[in-house]
Design a protein that fits this description.
alpha+beta; Beta-Lactamase; 6-stranded antiparallel β-sheet; 9 strands
């Protein structure tokens, strides 16, 4: 199961939970790469996000460069149990890795900025949409705030295609941005989404439920919420938690509020694109 005290793809790092951990950039294969550096080159290298606490025993820090943007963090070289002599080649290798991470991060930010462009464009009546209802400017921000309201560590929004056959990831928080490039899921293979499209909220907090309902992500607890406008089913919202619990009445009220808020945000985006 995914552990959410750290970012879902940086959970192998032995650091305390960083501040604003939900904004740590996601580098899906970085833990494996750093393990390989330790195993084959004797380099103990860790990633520390911008604003995080740098270890006192660090030997060297290499900033991840992002052209025209803020760096997401540093690669930090730590004392190794099996140290190898530092060479110009090893320094060049780490600088090249940092440059690659910077390019990946820039690409992720570009994908995130374009996420709303892949939404469907149904007929939307914008007369009832008012910006004061909203406090954030993007679906990503709304997902982030919504998940935090329910003590969840990840969230994803899936749009239903006009033919009601597939569900395409259109926004994520706490998950790799690469999810936005995944192939659409078939609705008939997604039982929880089918029920949500019919207006039901599904809570999965037992192992046998996961086997039956097959959520898109593997977390100890998952909630599937319908996103439905007065005129159409827009898609489904999945919220994920690393703690299993029985939702309270207040939680269900929050889910209803969140679904309504995302629906309005979604429609507002579509209306402004027309």
């Amino acid at each position: 199961m995914n552990q959410c005290i750290y970012d879902t793809n940086l959970r192998s790092f032995p650091f305390p939970k960083p501040l604003d951990y939900e904004d740590v950039p996601v580098f899906g294969t970085l833990p494996e790469l750093l393990r390989s550096l330790r195993q084959y080159l004797g380099l103990d290298v860790r990633f520390i996000r911008t604003g995080g606490t740098l270890p006192l025993e660090m030997i060297q820090g290499i900033t991840v460069p992002v052209e025209g943007g803020k760096s997401p963090g540093q690669l930090v070289v730590m004392p190794s149990k099996t140290p190898l002599p530092a060479t110009a080649d090893s320094n060049d290798l780490l600088k090249n890795i940092a440059a690659l991470l910077g390019e990946t991060y820039r690409w992720q930010q570009s994908v995130r900025s374009q996420e709303e462009q892949i939404l469907p464009l149904p007929s939307v009546d914008g007369t009832h949409l008012t910006k004061p209802f909203l406090t954030e400017s993007s679906l990503y921000d709304v997902l982030k705030q919504s998940a935090r309201l329910l003590d969840c560590c990840a969230a994803a929004l899936y749009r239903l295609n006009p033919g009601t056959k597939t569900l395409k990831t259109c926004s994520v928080w706490g998950l790799p941005e690469e999810r936005l490039l995944d192939e659409p899921r078939l609705l008939h293979d997604s039982l929880a989404d089918v029920e949500a499209v019919l207006g039901q909220t599904i809570v999965l907090n037992e192992d046998y439920l996961f086997e039956v309902w097959q959520p898109p992500e593997n977390f100890p607890m998952a909630i599937c919420v319908p996103i439905i406008s007065p005129s159409a089913v827009l898609g489904t919202l999945w919220l994920y938690s690393d703690v299993r619990k029985d939702p309270t009445d207040n939680d269900f009220e929050l889910l209803e509020y969140i679904a309504g808020r995302i629906t309005v945000q979604w429609q507002l985006i579509l209306y402004e694109r027309r």
